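Review session, final week

We close the course with one last complete record, chosen because it touches almost every idea we covered. It is non-specific serine/threonine protein kinase, a protein from Floridaenema aerugineum BLCC-F46 with 467 residues. Go through it on your own first, then we will talk.
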Amino acid sequence: MSNSSPLTVGSKLENRYEIVRELGQGGFGRTYLARDINRYLEPCVLKEFAPQIQGANELQKAEELFEREASVLYKLQHSQIPNFRELLRSQLNGKQSLFLVQDYIEGESYAQILKQRCLSEAEVVELQRQILPVLEYIHSQGVVHRDISPENLMLRNADKMPVLIDFGGVKKAATTAVYKATGRALVTLLGKEGYAPPEQIRQGKAFPSSDLYALAVTVLVLLSGKEPKELYDNSKAVWCWRQYISLSPELGRILDKCLAYRASDRYQSAREVLQLLPTVTNANPQPIVNPNPPPVTAGNPNISQMQTLNFVGRSWKTNVTQVIANVGKTIVNLPVKKLWGDKFLVNSLKVSAVVVVGVGAWNFAQAGLLKLPTKISFPNLPNLPNLPNDDATLSKTELERQAEIMRRSKALGVRNFYPQVDRLFYAKYPQLKGRALTEKPEDAKYRQRWCDIAEELLEQLERENSI
């Protein structure tokens, strides 16, 4: 903590900045809200740099390094970054201090918003769409923020845009300045605990992917209302956020990659993430959160591989155990009765959610996208031939692709989407004569082409919907 005394309300710094109130304090000094007398009392922020070192020579060296970093911030010109106005020297209580003068952002931080409510998936996706271009810009200028967190993201009142504040690069410069001036390292956290990635905490290194890591943690915190340490399993060194948050598979994959332990395993640019962000139309302001998730079981312990369920001749069987491993939803008892004579018979199963992924009007998607009741009634359907009883299963990638198709079609509210895809598919491949597709390897190419057609139709419908 700085040894300097706080500036009093109403006092003037260098006969220009009138102190309104103290905003906060940290290891290098205090931050104040002030009014610029020379600019018609325009509000601004004063950030103090008062390192605990003695001697004119040492302080001069510290100032030089600090000014060098401040000059970098001064060059940043972006509507979602507070303008850096000047570096101000001032004598306080017989000691010289440095102040960074920046624009004041009127609004509330996302940490303050989080005290009122959690954000929905749609809201955090929109937040990323708005803040990733800011990261792309600063990274192109050779600057890494180093300290992204809900506290350092402001929602500006004027236009409801997120603003990135409090660059940790200044803290790094200050730490380096003290070390070079005195030969003694000043212990400080470059980035908040839980938000900063391993290379930043342990080695003091930061890359563009380090900011993406911190942003991903911020997103999870805003969704769940939990601290990072609650979303991370130290004993296994893995993020366990899926125990508390339900997200679309696409956004989940993006966050997982951003949170990779090694910087080289993450996305290397904000542009990459921006281009992959899903379209989410969830109007619910609250996330689906289960603070005490029940354990996931595989059902009958006497069955090494869970039975599979087939619906309507045109379907691909989905191995329930695989779905449970991939998704891990809350268990629901699902007694499935004998269907359509002796042709469809499945005993009562205890499953995460039954997933039937397939080509045809009665497709279902990956577990968790449909809320299944404990009892299910089915419409009258014609007798259909039994599907081959093989042990083939779909890959995780194929399951996730099917789940994403279902999610997007549900978000659009399209009626009879799957029959439309069927018609397009069988018109393109008349040689199949409308036969059902199976999970067998020989049908893999046709399953992929069915998904291609489904995605093309979704893109067309999404474009029409956005007009």
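Two points worth writing down before the exam:
Residues 185-189, 283-391 have pLDDT under 50 and may be disordered.
The radius of gyration is 28 Å.
Good luck, everyone.
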